[in-house]
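Any chance you'd type out a single protein's sequence alongside its tokenized fold?
>
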Amino acid sequence: MSSRTKSKPALERRFTSPTVVPLSPINVVGTEEIPLQEPAPPAIVNAEITRLHKELVAAIKSNKKHSSKVARLESEAKTFRASITKLTSEKQEIQSKKDEKSNGLLQENTSLKSKFTAAQKELVRLRRKNEELANGAGGIKGGKSETQTTDVESLRNELKQVQNANKNFKMEVKKLSTDFEQAKQQSDEYKRQMMRTEKECNALKESNKKLTMEKNRIEREHKESRQQVDQLTSRNQQLVQKSLNLGAEKSRLKSDLNSQQDEYVQLRQTNRKLASEKNSLKRQSGTFNFKIDPNLLAKDPVTKGDSSSSRSMSEMGDTTIAVELENAKNEINELRKQISIIQNEGKSLTETNQQLTKDKDQLEITIKECREKIEGLVAYNKQLIDELENLSTTHQQSEINSNSREAELLSNIQELTTLDAQVQKEISKLRQDFELMKDNNILLTNKNEYLERTITESREQIEQLASRNQQLREESNNVTTQYGERVSYSNGREKQLNLRISDLEQLNKQLQDQINLTNQTRDSIQQNYSQFEREIHDCRNQIDRLSSQNQNLVEECNSLTNKYTTSLGSDSSRNATNSIVQMSGDLSIKVSELQQQNEELDRKLADVKRERDEAKGTYLVRTAKMQAQIKELKKEASQYRFALASRTDLSAV
């Protein structure tokens, strides 16, 4: 801006309104020095270069920042992939542990099945033995033994013990069922949590894929912006080189201008001398007011007058016209140089549209002033023609020479017109270049704005990605913490379940001991029953023996009664009769006692049968309960195995 405002007064000083002095064409443009239009000063060029350099440094810093952000995103993605790999390895370890535990549970289940099959076979064998005992004890009708009573009491005590053990076992099984339900609920909750964790992991994987795609897109944009920065750098280097070329051209033009100014000063001095000589000659010859006859211009030049004064005037007029033409050519060359300088300066400018508009206005003013100058030259040439017409009436030879010079001047004027047309063409071309440069400047401005918007959007996207990555990192840390807590809880729960399994195994061992004890009790009961059967058999034999004895006694009593009736009158017979009666009374007492014993034995036998039936029913009930408990234990073992397998699957996930 400062260069343009400084150069404008110089142009104004150069193209001021001409002061027309007769017969002194050098003074048409005034007496002031005419400096050429200078290009942009080095300060403005350096300021523009500094501004472009700052923009380049800012773009490089932005690219470095962008590169650091991309590197940080890559490191975070690498860390995330490492964490995923670690989780995968932990999942594989948990899967191997799960397989080991599954194999152990399968072996344990196989052993439990074999034990359960053996227990079922033993129960079937006991049931058959019990039925055999029940069938064998159906025909017992009598007998009494102290050992039988003690055996029945011991059986009752053992039965109570078995019932109490069965009740305790049932309570323990109920407690285990409650614990198993709680463990199942916790396992289900853990399974749901692990499913949620798996969903979150899948979401994290999807987010990681999106982040990878976004990172690739940012890298592509970063590459494009880097290419644009390289283009701007090359453009800046071109501008710097152009500025250096302009500086060199400016120095050369300044040296040419100084030489031309020296020549101009010399020409002015010569002009002044010629003007003084012209005025002196004019005073000597007088004033002539006449017009040139056009017919004379068409004739051949005839030399009239041989005076030295006319020859000197003619030579002086020729010299003046030649000097004027030389000055006009110099002015035209100067205009060409000025237009060349303006064109070179316009090609290298990267200023704003306002400065270009001011340059355009200045160029229009310059063109207008050039036209005014040409019009002044034309007017001055007309004045010269008038003066030559006035001089031709006095000096014919001078007139003929003036006519020839006039024709030459007309040709020079035509040449000036041609040069003016060329100048107009060059100005139109310059305007086209100016419009093209203006369009290029608009395109460059739009491109810079697009680059700024792209860089701003990239920064915002990078900040969003950084915040999202931080959020994902926090969520990943939370998920890892929850996973550790759940794994620790799972390990604790696994220890509890292992303890419960050991308790169940111990309880199973106790049940096996109880079954063995029951088998022993059954064997003892079977032995007692066999002993009781033998005693009943002895009682039957004794009853049969007593019955036969009673029968013998009855027969003897009848024989004695017959004898008594035959020998009723003798003393010996009366004594025998009394003794027989007494014996019969004793026998009757014994018979009644035996009958009472028989009835008591029948009652005891009925009691033993009832107790046997009760023991049998209790044994069957206990056996059914044991079967139900074994079935529940089997079901619980299968449920626990399923829960353990589910927990292992979830922990593996």
Observations:
- Residues 82-193+479-652 form one domain.
- Confidence is low (pLDDT under 50) at residues 1-39, 137-148, 287-310.
- The radius of gyration is 71 Å.
- The chain is about 90% helix and 0% strand.
